[in-house]
Design a protein that fits this description.
The structure holds two protein chains of two kinds. By secondary structure, chain A is mostly beta strands. Chain A has no helices and eleven strands. At the A-B interface, strand 5, strand 9 and strand 10 of A face strand 10 of B.
Amino acid sequence: GQNIDQPTEMTATEGAIVQINCTYQTSGFNGLFWYQQHAGEAPTFLSYNVLDGLEEKGRFSSFLSRSKGYSYLLLKELQMKDSASYLCAVMDSNYQLIWGAGTKLIIKP
Amino acid sequence: NAGVTQTPKFQVLKTGQSMTLQCAQDMNHEYMSWYRQDPGMGLRLIHYSVGAGITDQGEVPNGYNVSRLKKQNFLLGLESAAPSQTSVYFCASSYTGGSGANVLTFGAGSRLTVL
C-alpha cells in the first residue's frame, strides 16, 4: 500500500529553527508537496520538490531525497504565526496525491 | 479574486437526509476535486473532475455523487447521510490534474455533522 509518515506534533520556540520530516512509500513518484494549514482554515501551498536537493523560499526550505523516500520542511526564524499543521503529499504514478496526516507545529514564546 | 468558494460552511443533518455541497472557482481551472479531512488522517479524495461533464471516483467515493455541468462549478451530493460522513469537506482546484507541479487551491471548507 501507499503510505506517508510524518510526526503528529512538534513544539518549537519562537525565533528558533524546526525541521519537519516526511517519509513516503508510494507507487511511483511525480513530486512532493508541502502545504500549511492553520486551524479551521484551508491548506495553502508552500513548496514543491520533484528533483533531489534543497529548495529555498524565504524562511522556508524543503529537501527531497527520492532514493530514501524522504523529505523535510525546514522553518527558520520561527514566528508565532507559523503555528499550524504542515501537510506532506506525494503525487504517485497516476498523478494522484497521497496525503500524510499532517504535523501540528506549536510555537512557544 | 474569490478563488474557490464553498457553501455552506456549516451543516447539521439527520441520518438519511440528503444535501449538496457547492463549490465554485473563478480561476478558469480545469481540474476540481472534493476531499474529506478527518482527525488523525490525511486528506482523502472523494471524487474529482478533469473538465466539465467529466468526473471520476477517488479513494473514498461510496455514499457520494458529484456533478460538474459547468467548468466553474463542482457539486458534491450526499443522497442518504450517515454519521460516518461527519467530516470537514474541502473543494480544491488546479489548472490540470495530470501533471507534476499541480498546485491545488482549496476552498475554506464545509463542516458537516450527521446525527
